[in-house]
UniProtKB/TrEMBL annotation:
It comes from Anopheles atroparvus. GO terms for biological process: proteolysis. Its main location: secreted. SMART domains: Tryp_SPc. This is Uncharacterized protein. The lineage of its organism: Eukaryota, Metazoa, Ecdysozoa, Arthropoda, Hexapoda. One of its GO terms (molecular function) is serine-type endopeptidase activity.
Length: 250
């Protein structure tokens, strides 16, 4: 077969067919997920359990129960990997898009069938620790490359957002980051993970209305929602998932 390894992934149960085009590991980590509608990516996510993807609450705006899939195990957005069907999209009960999608911008996606782990697909540990000021984190770029970003001290983030229309919504649940080279916000895939020392510490939020004015990325701090994540997963097992509701607020 030469240098290219093609693995045929059969349609079975809750996932669709696909191919891994080569033998490289996923460029941004085997835990990265592409959330798609009709083959078009609308958000990213991170594998935190064999049935669960952590993403941003604002990603629900484009979610469609009939047409959404979670694609794992590929470097290519157009081909390859495995597409899993989505059973539920659980958004934090206090998230509201009218607040610029900043506070409580977190959600969990439950798959219809468990993921099959391999070197291309695996979960990542959720951190319950505070991110040190000025720590360097990795995130996912718009082309699925790796971006390196710097975590801002909380007081610096609040200072920069002070007296802006978004300022009242930035709080301790946010993890603000900038490009370490120019201190500007970075563009990437909303809903994808922010990683520090091999653990998931944040959910990325791409710049919105104020991005062009150089305000920091107001991401979601995972440690602040650690208990919510664990409780939501525990309370939404197989029995709880036997419902036609495409989304719940929890």
């Amino acid at each position: 077969m030469g240098p290219t390894l093609a693995l045929l992934l059969l349609v079975c149960g809750g996932y669709a067919s696909g191919q891994l085009k080569d033998d490289r590991p996923n460029l941004v980590g085997p835990y990265h997920v592409s959330l798609q509608v009709n083959g078009r990516q609308y958000c990213g996510g991170t594998i935190v359990d064999d049935r669960w993807i952590l993403t941003a609450g604002k990603c629900y705006n484009e979610y469609s129960k009939e047409n959404s899939t979670a694609v794992v195990g590929t470097n290519n957005l157009q081909t390859g990997g495995t597409s899993y069907l989505i059973d539920r999209f659980i958004v934090h009960s206090r998230f509201h898009s009218k607040q610029f999608g900043i506070p409580h911008n977190i959600a969990l996606v439950r798959l219809t069938t468990p993921l099959v782990y391999n070197k291309f697909v695996d979960k990542i540990e959720i951190s319950d620790k505070h991110v040190p000021d000025n720590a360097t984190l990795s995130s996912v770029g718009t082309d699925k490359s790796i971006n390196m970003v710097k975590a801002l001290p909380q007081e610096e983030c609040l200072r920069q957002y002070h007296n802006t229309i978004m300022g009242p919504f930035v709080n301790v649940g946010n993890l603000c980051t900038v490009n370490p080279a120019d201190q500007r916000p970075t563009f990437g895939i909303t809903g994808s993970g922010l990683i520090l020392e091999g653990k998931l510490v944040g959910v990325f939020r791409s710049p919105g209305l104020l991005g062009r004015y150089s305000y920091p990325n107001a991401n979601t701090r995972v440690s602040y929602y650690h208990d919510w994540i664990q409780t939501t997963i525990a309370n939404n097992g197989d029995e709880a998932a036997k419902t036609d509701r495409p989304s719940v607020r929890n």
